[in-house]
Amino acid sequence: MTADMYAALVLFCFVSSITPGPNNLMLMSSGATFGFRRTIPHMLGVGIGFVVMVILVGVGLMQLFDLFPISYQILKFVSVLYLLYLAFKIAHSSDPVEGSKNQSDDSKKPKPITFLQACAFQWVNPKAWTMALTAISVYAPSQQFSAVLLVALIFGAINLPCVSSWTILGQELQRVLTNQRRLQRFNWTMAALLVLSLYPVIVS
């Protein structure tokens, strides 16, 4: 890979990772609702889960879509349904970070997404699929493992700080979201934006 290709890859990784998408909207909502520390597993799940996804796409999953085109349509349908479910969950995750200490209510309180849940989410995230497929087809077209691994590691090194910045932004918004009503409105807004992010997937 030439220096120009490296520069183009780094720019692609940064722009695709920092711009709004399901991961970033969910992390901002989690940062505002649960705080940065409790969202760390979610952030790590996004970063590591996406690196694994890029590697697996590069070593063979792209061919699956070529052999069975219907598999892409099934994936799109499942992704849309799951993102609608997540939008519903975000809209109702409006408990303040310093919530009630009543033990009897703990099981009913919303909880941040876990590491494994965030890893698994990458496989139904339309933006993650677009990023992974584009990265491999443009920057590792030979699909040699060394080239695929390099693309995945560069993506991981850039992606994790980018998505973490959205969590920090959400946590900073806690200064504004000082009551239940404001937090609830914010999460409903995030849920609506998550639904709107599905538009390119639905019309494609």
Strand content: under 5%
Mean pLDDT across all amino acids: 85
Spell out the helices and strands N to C: HHHHHHHHH
Sum up the overall morphology in one term.
Answer: globular
Helix content: over 70%
Q: Total number of helical segments?
A: 9
Largest sheet: none
Content-based structural category: mainly alpha
Contiguous runs where pLDDT drops below 50 for at least 5 residues: 96-101
The end-to-end distance, rounded to whole angstroms, is 31 Å
Radius of gyration: 18 Å
Work out the count of structural domains: 1
What is the number of strand segments? 0
Protein name: LysE family translocator
Keywords: Cell membrane, Membrane, Transmembrane, Transmembrane helix
Subcellular location: Cell membrane
Main location: membrane
Main traits of this protein?
204 residues, mainly alpha, 76% helix, 0% strand, globular, LysE family translocator, cell membrane, LeuE-type, amino acid transmembrane transporter activity
How is this structure best described in words?
The chain has 9 helices and no strands. It is an all-alpha fold and 204 residues long. The chain has one domain. The two termini are 31 Å apart.
How would you summarize the topology of this molecule?
Elements (H helix, E strand, L loop, with lengths): L2 H16 L3 H13 L1 H32 L1 H23 L23 H7 L4 H14 L5 H28 L7 H17 L2 H5 L1
Nutshell version of this structure?
The protein is mostly helical. 76% of the residues lie in helices and 0% in strands.
